[in-house]
Design goal:
This protein is of the alpha/beta class. The protein has one domain (24-216): Collagenase (Catalytic Domain) (3-Layer(aba) Sandwich). The protein is built from 6 helices and 7 strands, in the order H-E-E-H-H-E-E-E-E-H-E-H-H. Helix 2 runs parallel beside helix 4 (143-156). The longest helix is centred in the N-terminal third of the chain and has 15 residues, at 2-16. It starts with a helix and ends in a 19-residue tail after the last helix.
Length: 235
């Protein structure tokens, strides 16, 4: 536990040193960085997190919850101010304001190699989530892969979309090679932090309509050998 806390603090320090943010010149959408424009929690929200019944074993649960801390660690530097607070286990999913339920369910997609799914609801019909659920397919059993999948789904909670063409370890939004093979992504990268920061800067200016089905799966842009900086996709 002490090692995990220390690692979390180091992650936060890496992005806040001298008030600096990651160099955008190294982050390219579709190559090392995800685009944004997906579902998002309102800025500065405190999200109450629950797990459903006995869906996760005592061994699995710490791996499922670990990414909550890695994303909490960069809350301030991303400008989101969003923090996750694990409350405990419940008997049925909750549909309350700023509630996130983590549960099991059959959502495996062989084509996209997705074994998890974000289900969200917005009371105002826009991209701001009122409540959400992260559904993890029973096929996903490897503890480390559970952590990686949760880190990915929490990226969706901050507006990031899938990036299937992104390089390995460049973003938590990359595709899994196989459902139960860990990809070593336990939390946001520097480019993820930069994109969430950009997403919340936009959010302060305008709120997008509810994401469309097309935005749910974004295979990214084809990588090119140039030095083009991050380009924010607009609908």
């Amino acid at each position: 536990m002490k090692q995990f806390i220390r690692a979390t603090l180091l992650l936060a320090s890496a992005f806040s040193l001298a008030g600096q943010t990651p160099a955008l010149a190294q982050c390219k959408v579709g190559r090392t960085s995800s685009a944004f424009g997906f579902w998002t929690w309102a800025a500065n929200s405190k999200i109450k997190v629950y797990t459903l019944g006995s869906d996760f074993t005592e061994i699995e649960l710490p791996f499922v919850l670990k990414p909550l801390q890695t994303w909490n660690a960069v809350s301030e530097v991303t400008g989101s101010g969003v923090k996750f607070d694990y409350v405990g286990s419940i008997a049925a999913p909750l549909y309350c304001e700023n509630c996130l339920t983590i549960m099991r369910g059959e959502v495996f997609d062989k084509t996209r190699r997705h074994a998890t799914e974000l289900r969200a609801y917005s009371a105002h019909g826009d991209q701001i989530m009122t409540w959400a659920q992260i559904v993890i397919d029973p096929v996903l059993t490897n503890p480390e892969a559970l952590t990686n999948a949760m880190a990915h789904e929490l990226g969706h909670n901050f507006g990031l979309v899938d990036c299937y063409s992104c390089k390995s370890k460049s973003t938590v939004m990359i595709q899994f090679k196989t459902a139960n093979e860990p990809n070593k992504m336990e939390g946001p990268t520097a480019c993820d932090v930069a994109q969430v920061q950009a997403a919340y800067k936009e959010l302060a200016v305008r709120v997008r309509p509810s994401p469309t089905v097309k935005e749910v799966v974004d295979e990214g842009e084809e990588p090119e050998d140039d030095d083009t900086p991050v380009v924010i996709k607009k609908p």
